[in-house]
Amino acid sequence: MPEAMMTDGSAVDQDSLLAGLLASAPPRLTPDQAQTLLHDHWGIDGSAHEIACERDQNFRIVTGTGQDYILKISNAVEDPLNTEFQTAALRWVARVDPELPLPRAVAALDGAFTQRLQLPSGRTSVVRVLSWLDGTPLHHVPMTAQMQSGIGAMTARLGRALEGFDHPGARHELLWDIRHLPRLRPLTESLGEDAVADAVRRELDHFEAQVAPALGGLRRQVIHNDMNHHNILVDASEQDRITGILDFGDMVNTHLAIDVAVAASYLASEDDPLGAIARLVASYHSVLPLERKEVEVLRDLTVARLVASITITNWRAARYPENAAYILRNNGPARTAMARFATLPTQDVTRALLSACDME
Cα(145)–Cα(276) distance, rounded to whole angstroms? Predict the structure, then answer.
C-alpha cells in the first residue's frame, strides 16, 4: 500500500486515511433503541430525537426535568481510544477552566464515562452521554465584527485550557488534520473539472511544495480543530455572546496554528474576508499569543482548510447521497471563500495578519 510522509517525518499509510472512518456508514439505531440503551446503562429516561451527524449517530435526550443530554454512538470502525481521548479532553478542560461553555461527560451506572456496547446490528460501538447545551447555532444569526473577535478569543481560551493535555489517542490519523492535505489528492477526482477544482489542485501543489516543509517548526498540542459555525452556540437574545462549543470529534494533536486557521476559514466567505479574519486573529493573539512564524503561515493553512472542506465533503456526499445535505452544509461557503479569500495576494494577507498581531 502507498505510504506518504507526515510533516514530522513519520510514515503515514495513505490507504488507511482514505478507507477508514469517513468511508464507513454511521450507526442506525431507532429512537426507541436509543432510549432503551440510555435507560439500561445510564439510568436516564427521556425521549430520543436524532441529530444529523457526519460519521456517528447522535440523539438529543429530552427528559422534561430541565436537564437534557446528548447520546453519542460512535462509528463502528472508530478506534475506541479516539472516543476515550475526546472524553478525557472534555474532563480535563472542565477541571482547568470550568467556566468554558463545553458539554460535560456523564458517568454511566458503572461509573465509567464510555461504554463499549453491541448494537442491534451486531456491531460494537463506543457509547457516551454528554450534557446538552442550550443556545442558537451561530450559522442562524447575522455575523458581526464583535462575534468575529469573540470566536478568536474563545478558540484561544480553549487552546490555552488544552495546553499540557495529552492522551494515547491524541495522535491518531485524521483526514481533517490538514497536515495530511496532500493525502486528499485522490479525492479530487470527485470535483470534476471547473474553476474551483483547478484552484483546489493548485493549492494542493503549493501546500506540498511550500507549506508542508515549513510546518515542522511550529508548536503542537491537542486542538479542537472544528470551530465552524454549526459548532458554536450563541445566546438567543444576546447574539454576540457565545454560550457553547460543540463537537470534539475532530480533536487531534497537531499544530496550534491550525486551530486558528480552521476558525478563520469559516470567515473567509464574508464580504470582507481579510478584515474578518484579521479581527479573529487579533483577538486570538490577545488571549494566546501566536509566534511570528505561525502568523506567517496562517493564509496557507486557512486555504488548506477550505481545500479540505471542499474535497472531503464532495467525496463523502457522493458515497452517502442520503446524507448529502448535511455533509455539504459548509461546501458552498467554502467555494465562495476560495473565490474571495484564496485569490487575495498572499503578501497582502500576511502583512495584514502580522499587523493585527502588532508584529509589523
Answer: 7
